[in-house]
Every structure is written in structure tokens, then in C-alpha cells.
Amino acid sequence: MMPTAARLVAAVVLAALAWFVSDLIRPLMPEGLYFGWFNYVNAGLGLICGWRVIGARAGRGMSDAIGNGLTGGVVLVFWAIFLQSLNEMLRLSMRHAYKGPVDGLQDMFRIGFDYARVLLDPGVATSLVVGSIVVGILAELSNRIWR
């Protein structure tokens, strides 16, 4: 896990992409929804996924860079949906919305699917795909420049 320029670039740029996409998602959600740490959590996940997924695989060529970027974007989306739906389930469980823990876990999947549907918005999906590819390419270029 040695720090490299590719890891740093991938982490910072994917975190910025996560923040940007989080801002795109806000108007698509129900009005009056409290977002709290939404952008910060997603940007933190972007840092981690950029460092561990995209940056770690840099140096294999441009075609692999595109795949690495897309893989990092998918991993970011998975963990973001997981954590945000877990947070919502815990919020609802504090209001005694569930009979037991299994009901809460089942509802977490429903919440996650609802959040995933929001990501199918053309602007959000395009930003995620193109941005992830750009992150992969930038990580590859930084690996070539600062070896």
C-alpha cells in the first residue's frame, strides 16, 4: 500500500466526482429531505475507492485505465448506496418502524433499490460513467509521469 501519485490523483479526483454527483442527486430526492453528511460520506468513499481500487491498478495501459475507472465508479456506487440505505434504515429503526431486525434489513434492500433508481437519471448516470473513465485515465497518466 505504498503511496503513489496515481493513488493520490485517483483518490482526490474520485472524491471530487462523488461530491459533484451528490450535488446532482439532491434535487432528484423528495423535497424537505435532510441530507446531513451526505456529500461528505460520499466524498470519503470516493477517496477510499480511488486510492484502493483505481490507484492501485494504475500502470497497466490506457484500455485497462478505462476499465479501472469504471470498476472504481461501480464500487463507489455500491458502497454509497449501501451506507446511505443503512443510515436510512437505522434512522427509521430509531422511530420504531420495524418489528424486528430482519424487517429492518429487508427494508434496507428496498431503500437501496429506491436510491439506485435515482442514479438512473440520465445526468447522474452520464456524469458517473464519464467521470469514472476520466478518473481512470488521469490515474494512468499520473502513473506514467511520476513513476
TrEMBL record:
Keyword Transmembrane: yes
Designated name of the protein: Tellurium resistance protein
UniProtKB keywords: Membrane, Transmembrane, Transmembrane helix
Transmembrane parts of this sequence: 34-54, 66-86, 123-141
InterPro entries in UniProt: TrgA
Highest taxon above the source species: Bacteria
